[in-house]
Description:
TIM Barrel, 9-stranded mixed sheet, two-stranded antiparallel sheet, 8 helices, 13 strands, about 20% strand
Amino acid sequence: MRGSPDPAHGPTAGLPKLAQPEWQETYGQACGTVGRPATTKLEDRPLPEGEPRPPDPQIFSLKTPTSIVRIAEIFRSLQGEGFLTGMPSVFVRTSGCNLRCWFCDTPYTSWEPEGEDFSREEILRQVDALLSAEGPSFSNSGAIEDADGSLQLHAGTLSKGEGEIRDADPDKKCRHIVLTGGEPMLFAELVPLTAALRSRGLHITVETAGTLDLPVECDLMSISPKLASSTPSAQRDARWHERHEQSRHVPEVIRRLTQDYPYQIKFVVDSPRDCEAAQAWLAEFPEIDRSRVMLMPQGTDLITLHGHAEWLKPYCIAHGFQFCPRMHIEWYGCTRGT
Length: 338
């Protein structure tokens, strides 16, 4: 662990006590994710005369730390995936990604990145306001199921079913933050941002593809490895077809993240071939706790999700995986701000 776990924050806690970090310049800064006009696409950023296009290594040395993060949206909702399904949370969604999954359900953070440049202080002001505002509470979640169909109780007392969203309960304070994207690990400012969130006593989840590493404070590292099937076709975009395939799998980063933080692994599964690919991926990492691995159906509509679930649930039972529904789509549909 990068720090000593704090048992006060429950089974997913592992509160790293970081030394002063050595700042690192990430792929996103090198490629212009930070500080550029919102209308400029990442891949179309003009380069000064004589400046080479930066290569795709995951971490660069930094001369001057940045204090800006490109933000697509900040909102309060219920966590819809993983161990904390049903947990009221404030989501900070960054804009910009070093990958281009063909099935990306937030294209406004990847294929067509949108957003505004926020300082750390501006992000914290919005987070504080949302934490203090009344929001929905939750009961009867369709949370993570064990291989035998039993339910894991990671977000309070949960039971199987469609899920029920209740009116605000002023006695239930929101204490969970989810840093997501896009790829939030593109931004070095995530390091002091997570330190500031830690000082507020908040539970921090970081959602990442596991290709980049920063010394952040984090209670749950939510890693979604990108299998070969995630690569966009050359017909759609020849440049991103090559870049995505080169960048999607970085074993040393996966090992660091799973060694240094409490974690969950979520594979997006679109076909039975993806199940085989996930098995092959896991064979490369025997140290990963299989009880923290889940298979999640690909899809942004209920018909697709339920169709995949029909064969994916039995596969999970037969092979000892957990099935991970996408409950936010069940509750809200595939809409922004949820």
